[in-house]
């Protein structure tokens, strides 16, 4: 036998498979991806339309620092010019005002004139690049050239003003010294020879040196080359618009939108409490995923899948049955409990019926027990014939021994009624249909129900039990100690990982084992999401068509008060876990 209950841990070498699996999970959120692409396309349309009538003209200016020897290689103009400050001057309002005068733009249009200009500095250069954006090619080139000319003019004026101020400062220092020198020369001419005249000559020499130094500084300033720079590339009318064009804008928008959609899907995936993959289901249940029902074929049709009508679905059920048959834990006892987490049991019923048919196809004597005593529907939805009385009814204390239904434990289920289900080419299997009873918990834990489940102890026999959702009612927990192998049937998008972990803990605490899981997609018309009433008994579901009358003309059961059994775990002094049932009256059916 093969042990199938293995931890679902991906090995390290399967990292590419994990990445592919995560990418497939992102594709589950098609609405987010579609919304992102849609927003990107709208942005692309706006970009394409808004830039379709814009033209950009460019002009380059090389800045020069004032110098008296432009061919001296030791001069470093980048030390004398702050390129960042010059860029701000080029973008200033004074430059725009000067350009507006040349272009004939009124004062009210100066802000708009400035808004179209962009000035950049290529790295490691003394170049200012004037880029102007306008609605026509000629206007863009005209305004770019006007802005460069205005900047050069303003820079020339600034340099001239600076030089004039420095010259004037030197002249203001020289004039008093020159006047003092002239007066001293007159005094020397009238002084007689002697020590006094010699001292006067010494003072005259000092004053003359100061005057000569100041004259030299003034001469250097006046001899400076004050050219602010030169235009190396005047602006010319561009031949094409500045925008990337509508097709390219749409492509860029779609790419950016897809990236945003993937980011939103990834964030949604991170915070999604539902299992993101089969591996998440397996890790939460600590049991393998035995099968995944084909899309749109997991519900809404007949409970018994016909191989000719849907071979994929039939083969999937056979695959699950064979995997269970080779599991040592199931093969040793041949008992299987099929449950859903919460909500509807329709898909779980379909899985139980088709697994019973698959086991019958392998030559097993299969008994399907509908332990859903709240909404029994199998007898009305399966092709059945009345069969012989089951062997358990002949046991002491059973109805066949003279007892009356309801005498033991005040329960009339199971009452000995047995149906034979025709599974077509798969053969036939026996069905013990469920019936609504006054006390569900007492019926499920009665000795007759225990003897019925023990039919699996017979050679070549298998018992499949269908129970209500395990998180909605405690019926499944009442059966776990006798049917310890549990198969969970769930839609991974409608259940939380915490729910699956809770199911595993409840079943393990009751002494059972989760053999595996069967995944399916939502039923037709069923909304995705968790069932209502978290942690509480779910509301009664419609019972569907009335069950067929039992052999002998037994009438269908009438609506009676029903009770819900909840499990309570007790730990006795010996350390073993037991599960008791507490009955809570919830309403009427």
From TrEMBL:
Residue ranges crossing the lipid bilayer per the database entry: 32-49
Coiled coil: none
Stretches for region Disordered: 225-244, 380-416, 519-589
Cross-referenced Gene3D superfamilies: P-loop containing nucleotide triphosphate hydrolases
Comp. bias (Gly residues): 397-406
The UniProt record lists the keyword Zinc: no
Keyword Protein transport attributed: no
Biased composition (Pro residues): 542-560
Entry keywords, A to Z: Membrane, Transmembrane, Transmembrane helix
PANTHER family, per the entry: CAPSULAR EXOPOLYSACCHARIDE FAMILY (PTHR32309:SF31), TYROSINE-PROTEIN KINASE (PTHR32309)
Protein name in the entry: Lipopolysaccharide biosynthesis protein
